[in-house]
Amino acid sequence: MTKETRTRKRGAMGVGDDPLTLAQRAFLAAYAECGNISAAAKAAQVNPDQHHKTWKHDPVYWEAFEAAHEIACDMLEYEARRRAVEGVQEPVYHKGRVVGYVNKYSDALLMFLLRAERRSKFNPKSDAVGEGSLLVSLPKAVVGVDLDKM
After folding, report:
1. Under a CB-based contact definition with an 8 Å cutoff, are residues 109 and 82 in contact?
2. What is the pLDDT of residues 33-47, one digit of tens each?
3. Which one of 6, 40, 107, 115 has the fewest CB atoms closer than 10 angstroms to its CB?
4. Residue ranges of domains in the chain
5. Is there a contact between 83 and 109 (Cβ–Cβ < 8 Å)?
6. What SS3 state is found at 16?
7. Residues 80-131 pLDDT 10s
8. Which residues in 89-114 are b (16+ Cβ under 10 Å) and which e?
9. Cα(124)–Cα(120) distance, integer angstroms
């Protein structure tokens, strides 16, 4: 009996029993951090095909993967929000030398976040958007485009 087999006991589970193998837990932890199956498999030193096979046939593993996927998506959303609202510092060059930094914001990411969270107000394909909607009256500083000139 291998270490992997001992970690995965079938049947009744007691307190502290984990139906996932050590390799599966390592893969899921790596996936939650990076959000990429190939990179997670490499980090956990497992074959990515094993993930796909297990995911299709093991409901416990499927549920654990969904939780890891949710964590990975939360991290993406956090980073998108940070770039949209806080911005990222980019160097300013003069004659090939860095002379300072400027904070750059992503209006596109901001719009994606608004469309995801406030579909009725910000999704142009939504029935709720039309003349007089908030999307049409957003200030140029928020959207980055003078909507009156469109």
Report:
1. no
2. 999 999 999 999 999
3. 6
4. 18-83, 87-128
5. yes
6. coil
7. 999 999 999 999 999 999 999 999 999 999 999 988 888 888 877 655 444 4
8. eeeeeeeeeeeeeeeeebeebbbebb
9. 9
Measure the CA–CA gap between 69 and 73, rounded to whole angstroms: 6
Helix (H), strand (E) at residue 26: helix 22-34
Show the tokens assigned to 150: 């469109």
Q: What is the DSSP letter of 145?
A: S
Amino acid at site 143: V
Q: Output the CA angle 125-127-133, nearest 5 degrees.
A: 90
- Secondary structure of residue 133 in the 3-state scheme: coil
Which residue bears the tokens 């908030």? 134
Name beta bridge partners: 98: 93
Q: What are the DSSP calls for 35-73, one per residue?
A: --HHHHHHHHT--HHHHHHHHHH-HHHHHHHHHHHHHHH
